[in-house]
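Let us begin with a simple case.
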Amino acid sequence: MDDGERPVSAPDSAPDSARVSSAAAVPAPVADVPMSRGRAVGIDLGARRIGVAVSDSAGTLASPRTTVARTGDRKRDLRTLVGLVLEEEAMVVVVGHPLSLDGTRGRAATDAEDEAEALRASLDPHGVAVELFDERLTTVTAHQSLMAGGMSGKARRKVIDRSAATVLLQAWLEARRSDR
């Protein structure tokens, strides 16, 4: 991995403690998630790749962490994400909620809700909160930022998922600060 990203590999075997619900509960508002100090992990779920970002321990700055390629095995992908979150010693995971521009929930939003619920079930025993956060336009913002930085199209495709996760997590961090 020549772009500075830390490699991620899916574990071959781990207990599957996650149960995916078809009707995920609505997450708590941003201000209700306790996090005085500690890392947050941002996750941008995609059909082929999952972007991951992490905050500093003060909860002020989001940085790109990695991109996880989907394996086609949802349980395996979940174990990989849980492993990343625990490795980062995160207090909260922020999952992008891809609402439509008009705020309605389409298929992508309900899929994200299901994955967030599976993460919540797996991370709850570890004391890690999981919440959904509106991610409208994060990928567009990430693309624009990378283009403005002079990055080529091929180079952008390599980092866009984790860049979108970074934009998502930074927006969440800023929303938390403004709610205090």
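The second case is a distinct protein. As before, the sequence precedes its structure tokens.
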Amino acid sequence: MNQILLQYCTYKDFFKVLPILETYSNIFDFQEKRIIIQEASKALDEAFEANTLYIATSEGQVVGFLGGRRNRNNPFRLDLFCMVVKRGYDGQGIGTQMFTHACLDLAKHGFTEIYAKLKSTYPPHTKKFYQKLGFKQTFDEEFTGASSDDTAMVLKLNKVDLPKQLIVD
């Protein structure tokens, strides 16, 4: 496995993420890709507070992306809108590394929870991956317009709920 570098995503970097999203056309439809681009743009505009977009690179190439935005009603909650690893790099722990890095960074910036909406169209292993990271299913009235098969999940960023690999003293 090549060495993976985890860092904040910038405007310049985000355009390198778009081809990764394209390869997931069977998961992300046109509307969802448009929403991801809009949310990333807003998050980049708000980055003076805390950057909430992360990329993983290998040999100068973007191989993973994690993006979230501060919730409008709860400034301590990050609403995760995308976590994806480039095909061919999946199964190597890159998603877990990106997520771990992001959690530690987000906690430093005052975030106490991460919220994710998992659509029923996502592959079955997606929900298992989030559960492995410590996410728990939640019921949230903000999760509107979703199919009854969609799932809302939350991870509390405190030592009680964080998986052991995320705890740093």
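The first helix runs from residue 11 to 22. The two ends are 28 Å apart (CA to CA).
Keep these points in mind for the review questions at the end of the chapter.
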